[in-house]
């Protein structure tokens, strides 16, 4: 599985903090004006949360303003295309759940950029498991009663972050395991889908724990299951997919950063250095841990290998279930 074959990150505790001389040195190597982090989703989702955590610290490290810009739409293709067509100078970054980039070539007959050619990996940032949760008013308490409800007269309305997203692919596989009638309801990103559950508009969601866990901890939703290798510390009574025998046990949010494909390697490496140091800061690492994420700062080469394998694996799921964008 992807998670087992992904190279482990170098220990973040040993990552050196940037020295006071780092910002002038980075400016001399080409970082001489405002940087943009393009998030191809609506505000409030996992990518947006991570981007807004990193931007102020990157600003300090680079000596240049780093701003976050949300460009939602077309399953992430609008934002990704903006980065693919940006100047190759390292000043426009794409931060997103990169599983989307692995899925979209199989999902769309044509996309306006080539992932391998037009986007260059900088580093993966975090892995966060998926959390399956239901609205509080749904008459279920665990996976068994959820399956019974799905097989009952009402069925389930299952919100996802968009047709063809990994949350959708995971939900399709889980729904097949549950049986019964499950209606998939796509939204423009994880944040609107979460609002649909908390407001009672939809019954269930499978979404990144980084964004979903607070709703469950605060009692706004009911946690049913979590992907990944272990239970969440904040939700010790919520079993893992593997414990329940659910498919897609290794699915989750793989957040990464990319730049325009022709960006010089030295600039890519400097961005990786900055991101590695920022992610190692106790406040950042602690906040990500609170949200259910695990650091995965592994550099461009490991990221590129992951992307190639994920493209093959997720593409097979799209083809098997004949998933098509609306």
List keywords for this structure.
single chain, 326 residues, alpha/beta, D-Maltodextrin-Binding Protein, domain 2, 2 domains, 10-stranded mixed beta sheet
Give your account of this protein's structure:
This protein is α/β, with parallel strands linked by helices and 326 residues long. It has two domains: 2-127 and 253-320, Bordetella uptake gene, domain 1 (D-Maltodextrin-Binding Protein, domain 2, 3-Layer(aba) Sandwich); 129-244, 3-Layer(aba) Sandwich (D-Maltodextrin-Binding Protein, domain 2). The protein contains 14 helices and ten strands. Helix 3 (46-62) packs across helix 12 (265-280). This is Twin-arginine translocation pathway signal protein. Pfam families: TctC. Residues 1-22 form the signal peptide.
Task: Write the topology of this structure.
Elements: H1 2-5, H2 22-28, E1 35-39, H3 46-62, E2 66-70, H4 77-84, E3 92-97, H5 99-107, H6 115-118, E4 119-135, H7 143-150, E5 156-160, H8 166-178, E6 182-186, H9 190-198, E7 204-208, H10 209-217, E8 221-226, H11 241-244, E9 252-260, H12 265-280, H13 282-290, E10 294-295, H14 300-320
Parallel strand pairs: 1-2, 1-3, 5-6, 5-7
Antiparallel strand pairs: 3-9, 4-7, 4-8, 4-9, 4-10
Signal peptide: 1-22
Family: Belongs to the UPF0065 (bug) family.
Protein name: Twin-arginine translocation pathway signal protein
